[in-house]
Design brief:
Layout: H1 2-27, H2 31-42, E1 48-57, E2 63-73, E3 76-83, E4 91-96, E5 99-104, E6 109-112, H3 129-133, E7 141-148, E8 152-159, E9 167-175, E10 181-188, E11 194-206, E12 209-219, E13 225-235, H4 246-249
Antiparallel strand pairs: 1-2, 1-13, 2-3, 3-4, 4-5, 5-6, 7-8, 8-9, 9-10, 10-11, 11-12, 12-13
Length: 254
């Protein structure tokens, strides 16, 4: 009798433990869901219009500054160079991840950027054309939750089957408080080594949505660094589709 009671107690304890353990695992967030939510948050606005102050910092400490005006609507983006004077009038039109055009006033022609150079640096910055044109990481990567800290969910992103990307994986940190992506570690496709770190900071809340205002990208192979600050942003201002055209690329900015 006693052995039977002891067996029932042990069995009941095991059942309770299994139930509790199952509940704990059920509450663990799914990596893909976390990534999709972060993408949704980063694309929460119908359109954007802002100035982008970009500083390129060489290994010798010499800084080169660029000022650009940017319009964004969905995946479309128009970038017009304002400073320095030697680059004023240049423009970049992005229609999607694979349709990128550059206008150089000296030549008076619009040139399409070939798809095989997507992994090259965007006009001297430490962000590639691929980095600059990707608006939703979840379109290209699966996400696995690999760590949960007091501040962040840490996800390992690996390319989806059949998708051509420049990285073997990207490890990102999503802030648990506001859901924004705060850091991206990029690993190359050949040696699988960490080659670049992107940090996002100065998060401010605009129309109820948090958004980083500063991006710092460091190339670990060269030590070169790019610092980007977003200035004077306007959200949901009704940006016209006519801005995202080759004709608008040639239009001088006042």
């Amino acid at each position: 009798m006693r052995s039977a009671i002891k067996y029932l107690i042990v069995f009941a304890s095991m059942a309770v433990m299994a139930s509790v353990t199952g509940a704990v695992f059920a509450e663990q967030p799914d990596g893909d869901e976390l990534l999709i939510k972060a993408d949704d948050l980063a694309n929460a606005f119908e359109d954007l219009h802002f100035n982008m102050d970009m500083t390129l910092i060489g290994t010798d400490g010499i800084e080169k500054r660029r000022l650009m005006k940017v319009w964004q609507k969905g995946k479309m983006r128009m970038v017009k160079f304002l400073e320095p004077a030697s680059e004023r009038g240049m423009s970049v039109l992005i229609l999607d991840e694979y349709s990128v055009f550059i206008y150089l006033p000296a030549y008076g022609k619009v040139r399409r950027v070939a798809s095989h150079v997507r992994n090259q640096n965007f006009l001297g910055a430490d962000l590639s054309y691929e980095d600059f044109t990707t608006t939703r990481l979840s379109d290209f990567y699966h996400a696995k939750l690999i760590e949960t800290t007091d501040e962040h969910f840490v996800l390992e992103l690996t390319p989806k089957p059949g998708v051509a990307v420049s990285y073997s994986k990207v490890v990102i940190k999503i802030h648990r408080g506001d859901g924004t992506i705060r850091q991206l570690d990029y690993y190359d496709n050949i040696k699988k080594e960490l080659i670049k770190v992107e940090e996002r900071s100065n998060v401010t809340v605009v129309q109820g949505h948090p958004a980083p205002r500063k991006i710092t990208v460091t190339d670990l192979r060269t030590g070169h660094q790019t610092v980007i600050e977003l200035i004077g942003s306007k959200y949901n201002s009704g940006v016209e589709d006519s801005i995202f055209t080759q004709r608008y690329m040639k239009r001088p900015e006042r």
